[in-house]
Amino acid sequence: MAKAKKRYVCQACGSVSHRWQGQCPDCAEWNTLAEDIPATVFSQKHDLSSGGRAVEFVELDAPGEELVRRPTGLAEFDRALGGGLVPGCAILMGGDPGIGKSTLLLQATALIAKSGGSTVYVSGEEAAGQVRMRASRLGLADAPIKLAAATSVRDILTTLGTMEPPALLVIDSIQTMHSDTIEGAPGTVSQVRGCAFELIRYAKENGTALVLVGHVTKDGNIAGPRVLEHMVDVVMSFEGERSHQYRILRALKNRFGAVDEIGVFSMEGRGLAEVANPSMLFLSGRDEPLAGSAVFPALEGTRPVLIEVQALIVRLQSGATPRRAVVGWDNGRLAMLLAVLESRCGLNFSSAEVYLNVAGGYRLSDPAADLAVAAALVSALADKALPRESVWFGEVSLAGEIRQVSHAGLRLREAAKLGFSAGFGPQDSPDSSGLKFQGFKQLSNLVDQVVASE
Ligand code: TYD
Ligand code: MG
């Protein structure tokens, strides 16, 4: 039999190399390559074209089982999931350490348990006593959850095999799990993948909804192999700034529903509280308009959310390299917008430090936020406040044009509902809000107007 070639897998991004290197050639992380031991070593002689069983083909419209969803009882969680847990589905829940994943899942598990569903919560990170303490802090100590502190997948599956399959199984976290059939320490790619595979197989065979908690690396990816994301049905991310109170639960992939709905929570002394109407959360609530602040009407799924973008410009006296710092928006996009403002609108940021902050720990990803960011930057540079109670949206192109974005009417209607009186956006936006709307064709038109304003 031919000797199997060794392969090395980056523990951060999952890329494969055929020799060991100190730095991953793909993601440039150091010391992340580890040898990957394949489960079976295939021989060249194996021919797969015979010896198998016939695969059965079915019609697309053949009657199948209907998708039943089990609501968790946390409406915001259910909303992000697309309606609730589907039996047999595997969910990967990612998020920064300390953001509240364990708290959220303990609350959801307790609610299901209290409504009569059987639930198992396996913690590989905390001792059972710690989880119990958290449960009593959350006022959930009386929920009939089956709680265990374990890390061996063999122990877990053996135990599950002796009982009725639960409706929900939570594994907190997949990086702490260990399978004795696979070499390597817990958290390595082959362990994570192998353990996840076994747990998912159990879930599918028994109709148990499975939630795997996954750690997140510095750059926001779920640590360990990307393949984990392919193995599960739903990938969720729990986001927010730890220093802020608000948390957003987002589905990044969902085989059973849409991915554009979010759940909004606030972290309180007694766990996560649901925020049913988040539209005003991310505004600073100031009365007087301030230079450098613009409000962006964002859309999260079907829910409009108004978000304040704040910019601060500090002129440097010396020739030191000016800083650009961004919280809640993309660094590269800020660089692009500054370049457009410089080259198309004649503004000069080259000797100024630029700070950009999205209020409330929110993370903006909608390209329609470009115009609000540009308005905040221009307003900060000119030291002139934008018109009172105004909202700004539109995508900015490299040529300095302002492009149409989706749902302009919906954005404006929500702003009008919340008492805003003026909207600024791309020219020819459909408007049905009763709000005073002004459209811009070029970013330079906006700059002229802000700079000229009183
Ligand atoms: P946790 O769920 O342990 O985070 P993760 O599992 O994502 O690492 O949440 C930990 C943080 O949440 C911790 O810093 C304290 C805070 N917290 C509250 O503010 N209120 C609470 O009721 C609980 C349980 C936690
Ligand atoms: Mg945790």
Structure report:
With 454 residues, the chain is of the alpha/beta class. It has three domains: 1-38; 75-276, Rossmann fold, CATH 3.40.50.300; 281-449, Ribosomal Protein S5, domain 2 (2-Layer Sandwich), CATH 3.30.230.10. The chain is built from ten helices and 21 strands. It has helices at residues 75-81, 101-114, 128-137, 153-161, 189-206, 227-231, 331-345, 370-382, 408-417, 443-452; strands at residues 7-10, 16-17, 33-36, 90-95, 119-123, 146-149, 168-172, 209-215, 234-239, 246-254, 262-268, 271-274, 293-300, 303-315, 324-327, 352-358, 390-392, 395-396, 402-403, 422-426, 436-440. α8 packs parallel to α10 (443-452). The longest helix has 18 residues, at 189-206. The N and C termini lie far apart (82 Å). Magnesium ion is lined by residues 101-102, 125, 172. Thymidine-5'-diphosphate is lined by residues 95, 97-103, 134, 137-138, 267, 269-271.
Short account of what is shown:
Helix content is 24%, strand content 25%. The chain has helices spanning 75-81, 101-114, 128-137, 153-161, 189-206, 227-231, 331-345, 370-382, 408-417, 443-452; strands spanning 7-10, 16-17, 33-36, 90-95, 119-123, 146-149, 168-172, 209-215, 234-239, 246-254, 262-268, 271-274, 293-300, 303-315, 324-327, 352-358, 390-392, 395-396, 402-403, 422-426, 436-440.
